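Let us work through a complete example step by step.
Step 1: write down the sequence.
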Amino acid sequence: MRAAAVFCVMGLAGSGAFAQEMPFFSVGSGDVSGGYYAVASAICDLVNRVELGAMRCSPDPTTGSVYNLDALRQGELDLALVQSDLQAQALSGTGRFATKGPVPGLRSVMGLYPETMTILVQTDAGVRDVMDLAGKRVDVGHPSSGRRATVERMLSSIGLSEDQFSELAELPTSTAINAICDGAIDATFIVVGHPNDAIGTALNSCPITVLPLSADEITSVIGTGKDLTAATIPMSDYRPGAPAQPSFSVTATMVARADTPPEVVDSIVSDVLQALPELGRRAPVLAGLDPRKMATDGLTAPLHPGADIAFARVLNAP
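Step 2: predict the structure and record it as tokens.
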């Protein structure tokens, strides 16, 4: 069943006003218990309130970035949240998109927040660095998730392969956190914005810790591209006084198809930019965003015309 907006029956009136039929559109997100779904829900709730009677937004739970980009390709979504590294691969037809080729008409809507590679390990698993994961039971994420693609890129960069693990798990994020708390796995790679309630609960109630990456490992993973950046995990958010742990980040971004109506994209971006403090209270990962950086950070695909209009209007307002 097509999950995208039903634009074919409504038409758009002149001067940017919507005609009689109310546009409905879905935002592809992620696991219903994950960060992308929470962010999509917060954005849709805002848009539905501000644009009451003019348009309707619905957060669509999915398996993640790779699925979302394939759904955009197939016309099953009009907008989606995806990781910046997957956005870059989808635009160029590389990495996870090397076989199918570039996603046609991919357009950026806005950059959101950093998502940091967070490696959770059992404290008694004998893991002191990432190479010690060889021979362990490790979760790498669902095959169509963005974090799985990022984990594969990271492992390849540092010279560690999935077949070196004693057991390979492919779990949704929420299931992976439960599994490591229960002792069913030794480690899991989570790509997440901080602070994160699920991570905080796990760190303070389960025998687990966060594994840092070395400077050389971070440099190797990031390479010379612009889709990944060096980052730190703010451990003090979870354990007062704990030092930050070095890692790397992708950026959570919103993308659309080129034929998604500019009036829809304009409204979404404008509503978000004008309500950032409110959104930050609803979804803490959105707190403190810089509107100017949202027009550029993590965005490889060309900016959608509707987003271009919204950023120009809001950023140039007196």
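Step 3: interpret the result. Strands lie at 24-28, 56-60, 79-83, 106-122, 137-139, 167-169, 187-192, 208-211, 229-233, 245-257.
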